[in-house]
Design a protein that fits this description.
The chain is mainly alpha-helical. The chain has one domain: Ybab, Chain: A (2-Layer Sandwich), CATH 3.30.1310. A three-stranded antiparallel beta sheet has the order 1-2-3. Strand 1 and strand 2 form a beta hairpin. About 15% of the residues are buried.
């Protein structure tokens, strides 16, 4: 390649590509930092919901799993086991729904970061995509009256199996 014009054009294209890749690497580092911070916040997330009568408080983690149930000392004196169980289940559903919304809010900046930049496969055929660095959280809804994974049914005893 002895043509100075072609050589200069090749240098200019290489420099433009280098600038694009440097920008993408900066974006990747920024998204990685955002992801790390968001993951830490999600891991530490706890959401509480109190039953309307104030007799129980249910705490769930970021996945909506119940991690604590706190009963007021007078819970069994002021309520029936059936009503208390239904209220606890409703509080668990409420706190799980709130946890899902908070996780989505915490992860939103990560999924929105760098949307306008070209993706790596746009520049280098066959390269892995950076766009789907963060997978979307699955949407899980538990409506009133639905069974939960443990097999518990609304209205059934929360002490099922204790007599065995």
């Amino acid at each position: 390649m002895r043509d100075p014009g072609a050589r200069e054009e090749l240098r200019a294209r290489n420099e433009a590509l280098r600038v694009q890749i440097d920008g993408m690497l900066e974006d990747l580092h920024r998204r990685s930092d955002l992801l790390s911070r968001a993951q830490s916040e999600v891991a530490a997330l706890r959401v509480e919901a109190r039953t309307p009568d104030g007799l129980a408080t249910v705490t769930v983690d970021s996945a909506g799993a119940v991690v604590d149930v706190d009963l007021a000392p007078e819970a069994f004196a002021r309520s029936t086991p059936s009503r208390l169980g239904e209220a606890i289940a409703a509080a668990a559903r409420d706190s799980a729904a709130t946890a899902r919304r908070r996780v989505q809010d915490l992860m939103a900046p990560v999924s929105q970061a760098g949307v306008d930049l070209p993706d790596l496969p746009d520049l280098i055929p066959g390269a892995p995509s950076l766009r789907n660095l963060v997978p979307a959280a699955p949407e899980v809804a538990v409506a009133d009256g639905d069974s939960v994974e443990s097999g518990w049914e609304p209205g059934a005893s929360i002490l099922r199996g204790a007599d065995q």
